[in-house]
Amino acid sequence: MARFWVVGEPNADGSISKLSTEVATLARSLADAAGGDAVGIVVGTDPGRAAAELAAFLPRVIAVADPGLAGHAWSVPAAERVAGVLGADPDAGGFVMLGAGPDGRDLAGTLAALTGRGVLANATAVRWDGRLVVEMGAFGGKLVTSSGFTTPGGMVTIRPNMVTAEPLPTPGVVEAQAPAGSAALPRVAIVEQVEEAGAVAPIEEARIIVSGGRGVGGPEGFQLVGELAAELGGAVGATRAAVDSGWVPYSQQIGQTGKIVKPQLYLALGISGAIQHKVGMQTAETIVAVNRDPDAPIAEFADLLVVGDLFEVGRALLVALRERSG
Amino acid sequence: MHIVVLTKPVPDPAAAAERLGPDLRLDRAASPAVVNGNDEYALEAALKLVEAHGGEVTLLTMAPPSGADTMRKALAMGATRGVLVTDPALAGSCVRSTDEVLAAALRELTFDLVFSGFDTSDGNAGVVGAAIAARLGLPYLSNAAKIEPDPAAGRVRVRRITPAGHDLLEAPMPALVVCTQVLGEPRYPSLKGIMSARSKEIASRSLADLGLDGATVGGAAATTEVLDSRRPPARGATTVVRGSAAEGAAAIVALLTTRRLI
Ligand SMILES: Cc1cc2nc3c(=O)[nH]c(=O)nc-3n(C[C@H](O)[C@H](O)[C@H](O)COP(=O)(O)OP(=O)(O)OC[C@H]3O[C@@H](n4cnc5c(N)ncnc54)[C@H](O)[C@@H]3O)c2cc1C
Ligand SMILES: Nc1ncnc2c1ncn2[C@@H]1O[C@H](COP(=O)(O)O)[C@@H](O)[C@H]1O
Description:
By secondary structure, chain A is α/β, with parallel strands linked by helices.
């Protein structure tokens, strides 16, 4: 029987991450298709809340409370505890599914080494076709590949926003388990936790993103980007060029080394559409670009390209939107 | 300070010539190779630390023999020497083999720190660093925005980027650190650097040299396989609007209205 394990990632406030609820929803549908089951694992100092929240999406969630995690970086000791749960499972196979965010990929790397499982990373879709078939984008989205495991089990990390999280009609059960397995890997101490001002709501969750590039020219230009985002009820994004210039924090960068987003609307101002940026936003439902260069690469994948100066068009758009909303 | 930087040759994304061969493996001959962009940030961070504290930077790469040419570019940036693990049996390696082989190569080296890149532009997994750290029992510090080693105390502090800000992490050395672009833009090789790179040592290691067996790592032991590949569905045609700013704005409002976005 195929078992789909979902490793839940708790947020700093103890709630479950949105991405984990998406992964859980996907795991449930795979379990249905494969005639197997889906089980969650949440490891933390105090995993109760995250486990209960994950159980809204999975029939069974194992909560492992390990007070030894306090004051330490999470992923390595958590991976050892997950390995402890997997090791106790008589069916040694089974697929482990995690979010393709910073914590998920850290944990996946450690767990891969601990369990010898293969890894398919950054999945955009996963289906059951007599075996697990994992779709991923390759070469900046030029190709979509389908891959599988040659071994009975494996690990898959899932990109944000690929599935819509859907709770169960009735929540599942949470089962507490004592920490098990080896805890031999060095734990890294957290000396200080710093919240930075301006760390806004995660950009991956925004329905609308107004994004600026080098063409925006400086922090003053980003005021216009911010005003448009506010008027549309969206978030501000940026290219690496804008982030490297210090105009926008790294947390807002979209692309290969930034966030992968899938909003309903992506409004790109002064962005050329380099492949490393495109890979982070090409699955947006609607892409609108304002660029004075009609031959910029973004012209090839935008739904609408307005050729013109972003400040002039941006201000006119602000006026038009304000008129509309009265 | 001795720092080992893990650098992977990847097809140059700028050439946009990447493709899969008939065996559905990356066709490395189809595209010119460059040092993986994110590994250049790791190398830059290592070079700066060695400039400040003294010491050496060793590059470690697992790649076909042509990987030596790509490595010269990274040597020209200022690394001291390179180690290239290359073996015909490694073609078609999966993540598990990559981290097992790199971990075995690291066991032969002495170092205070190992740096890996955030991810690779052709593999994109971003998991190799964590897996190596676990295999070697090294402290693992990821997502680094700042790296501050204290060689006298034998410890390293790393500012790890988190969703809310950052965590300040501390661990004894040797340790493995995953670098991000926030550490700073990589330098361009100087002419002098390019000249001196020609005579820098690149040591070659086979699987047998590392005491590994081509039956249990590499292509023959891959845990994953590509089943097929296709082009993504094309997006619809692009509407291009030229004219006054007001006309441009009106076109945007019209589209957002029909798509019920406003
Ligand atoms: C390893 C690696 C990882 C990377 N990761 C990322 C990533 O995660 N995210 C990312 O974004 N990039 C990433 N990059 C960088 C990427 O290659 C591009 O350099 C970057 O996306 C370019 O940003 P841009 O579009 O803002 O700037 P440019 O390419 O300089 O484009 C600016 C555009 O603005 C237009 N413009 C200028 N002024 C105006 C005006 N007044 N009105 C209208 N239009 C105007 C220009 O015509 C031009 O098209 C990465 C690169 C590497 C090597
Ligand atoms: N074949 C390789 N040779 C050297 N370093 C590698 C190799 N593969 C991965 N790495 C390192 O591991 C990091 C993450 O790679 P990946 O998990 O493949 O995205 C890269 O940025 C490199 O620093």
